[in-house]
Design goal:
By secondary structure, this protein is an alpha/beta fold. The protein is about 30% helix and about 15% strand. The chain is globular. The structure holds S-adenosylmethionine (SAM). S-adenosylmethionine binds next to strand 8.
Length: about 280
């Protein structure tokens, strides 16, 4: 039997043959009722196994309305358990469903492939085992940040890192571009905490940033609104005060460039750019 659902882009039909396992990973966006796309809705409704990880009750309710038998994967988190272990357990659970012949739809919050490791890994493993697997794009926290803070990453360029990774790998900072740091609320802690991390390691992050930026550089703690009609949290503060600020699991740090970059005259003349084009 072939299920047809109204969708754009690549047809669902070939993925929807009953008894053949398949995998589609979709995102809710940040404000589910506003951001969930028609295409994602169609896949959720047409799949016979829906597994999800979302961050709020409205998102959970919307998914349950579309697929009453949908199951949350958040039960796999454990207090103090390394998040990497949980992600692997999620991937195993997803693959079990696909191998069991289920047309499986995984729903993750935000963009399902942005700072969200299990979706990519599940797709890779499903494809390796010969199952059709794909991901649909969705609205991430960073997309909301661009809109709410009025930032165009094309203007002066942008770097974007997970905060602990950024420090652990001593990533090079270019102070002429914007810097976005994700997961500052779990900085230096790779385990899951229901209440969020204690943030007592944040001074370490601040010290690293202060190697490149002045301590009085104005930065922004950003939290996109997750419900329609609510305002985002946009808290501007001095970088040196970051460790004293309220930082939650939904906080993302935006650091604007500290100075402008200069055009390299030799390159400009080689490319034939007039001063006005630069
Ligand atoms: C595991 S990542 C998930 C990102 C998600 N897949 C996305 O597309 O936005 C979690 C991090 O995303 C960022 N984030 C999640 N919700 C957010 C929100 N409402 N506002 C700002 N940043 C958010 C924070 O940096 C948080 O620590």
């Amino acid at each position: 039997m072939i299920i047809r659902a109204s969708t754009s882009g690549r047809g669902m039909e070939e993925w929807m043959i009953e008894g053949n396992g398949s995998l589609v990973v979709v995102g809710t966006g940040i404000r589910t009722t506003e951001h969930l796309t028609g295409n994602a809705i169609a896949w959720i409704k047409a799949s016979d196994k829906v597994l999800y990880v979302v961050a709020d009750l409205v998102a959970e309710r919307v998914i349950k309305e579309l697929s009453p038998s949908a199951e949350s994967l958040t039960v796999l988190y454990g207090e103090g358990k390394p998040r990497g272990e949980t992600y692997h357990a999620m991937v195993d659970r997803i693959l079990d469903s696909v191998r069991g012949g289920h047309r499986t739809c995984v729903v993750l919050y935000g963009h399902p492939g942005v700072f969200a490791y299990p979706g990519h890994l599940a797709i890779e493993r499903a494809r390796d085992e010969g199952y059709p697997a794909t991901m649909l794009p969705a609205i991430s926290a960073e997309d909301c940040l661009f809109a709410d803070l009025g930032i165009d990453p094309g203007h002066q360029g942008m770097q974007s890192y997970e905060a602990s990774h950024f420090v652990l790998h001593r990533k090079r900072i270019d102070p002429t571009t914007a810097l976005v740091l994700w997961q500052i609320g779990s900085f230096g802690d790779n385990t899951y905490r229901r209440e969020g991390a204690s943030n007592h390691k944040l001074p370490f992050l601040v010290a690293r940033l202060c190697e490149e930026y002045p301590a009085d550089h104005a930065v922004t703690i950003y939290e996109a609104a997750i419900y329609i009609g609510c305002a985002p949290r946009i808290e501007r503060l001095r970088l040196g005060k970051l460790a004293e600020a309220r930082v939650t699991p939904a906080s993302t740090l935006y650091i604007p460039p500290v100075r402008k970059s200069r055009i390299d005259p030799a390159t400009a003349s080689w490319l034939g750019f007039e001063p006005a084009d630069r």
